[in-house]
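Known limitations

Files may contain more than one protein. Parsers should not assume a single record per file. Below, a two-record file is shown to illustrate correct handling: read the sequence, read the token line, then continue until end of file.
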Amino acid sequence: WTHDVSTITFANGSAYTIYSRATDNLDLAVTTGNASPVPPPVFTYDNLAPTSAVSAPAPGVNITTVTTLSGTLTENPPTGNAGNKMVRIAIQRLLDGKYYDGLTPGGFNSFVRVFLNANLSAGTWTLAASTFPWVAGEWFKVESQGFDTLDNSEPVASLPSSQFFFDNGLPTSRIAAPARALGYYTALPTLSGTGVDTGVSGL
């Protein structure tokens, strides 16, 4: 037997019990409550994707080192959910729109998203990133995509993200006045020199 349930609106996070009752041509039927099998099957409805977020690097920051990418994953609905399964991460270099694929040269070679599996524990995800080829003076975007144990997932077209600016170049300075060769002065109204940022953040 089959029964179409496509028009039934199931509530997310709610549990449902299925009962069947057979009646023969003599109108003999099992008594109410005596379902087959015993106990009857129970299922919980969950078609909502979890919600991920990128916490570090924080949106819009200028940073000199990137050791770990991290964020959170929250399952929906808050109760009666299937549970978190995994988080995938995509990293894009905004200068040319290419994604990190781990291949040489440069590491950022793909115009199509390449996802990396993050470590997930107690609703927090992390991904070691100290060896990634971050380039000074460029913006990068980190996107996260969460999955629950039913493979409900966040849509790729609207993934949570964080953009940050990377600059690990050290500035340099020079003293112009007083001149190094002259040790004595009768007056010294101004100290002066130069400063140059070998990165691109500016002094």
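...continuing to the second record:
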Amino acid sequence: FKLDELRDSPNPQPISTFKTSGDTLAVWVDGDTVYLSDEGDGFQILDFGRIDTPAIAGKVEILGFDFQVVNGYAYVASGNLQIVDVRNRFKPEVVATVRTPGFAGGVKFRDGYVYLTDAESGLYIIDASAPRQPQIVGRQPVTGSARGLGVFPSLTSPPSPPLEGRGDRGGVTLAYVAAEGGGLQAIDVSQPSRPRWLNRYD
């Protein structure tokens, strides 16, 4: 893992390197803290308080293929969903697990919900407003094997008929799921308990 200096430089150069025991799979940066998932040592938290000598603050032995850190919790796709309390970066701990039928490898967090892709059964929507007590509230099958995803507010409304009872979030939120053998698929997730498949782009 290498940290590059990007400020005012057309040619960024590495200024610090942290050697991992395996391949680095995913990275998240928050201030002087770097979270990374490594094939050898699992989910790690690095302290970059001294930029030239990064050090491991804490780690959890889970293999995360994708993750996101929000409000002191890491939402890790590791075959299932693992929620890690990282508020004390020196003592991270898994506080909840959500199991899915297949292999969960993609995850995004938005507005209190976790969106998780499962290779066999599509998109899962999980209420994580209480991170230690997550609840699956919706699921949408997709064509092919679901892998990565993105979740964004839509600039335009999805095709009719619209869903009623979108709750207090307002607007339209779309999940875009990349599926092996299924292209890119758009799903209306404005109402988390009633996701609606919209279309597919090959």
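Parsers that stop after the first record will miss the second one. For reference, the second record is described as follows. Residues 161-169 have pLDDT under 50 and may be disordered.
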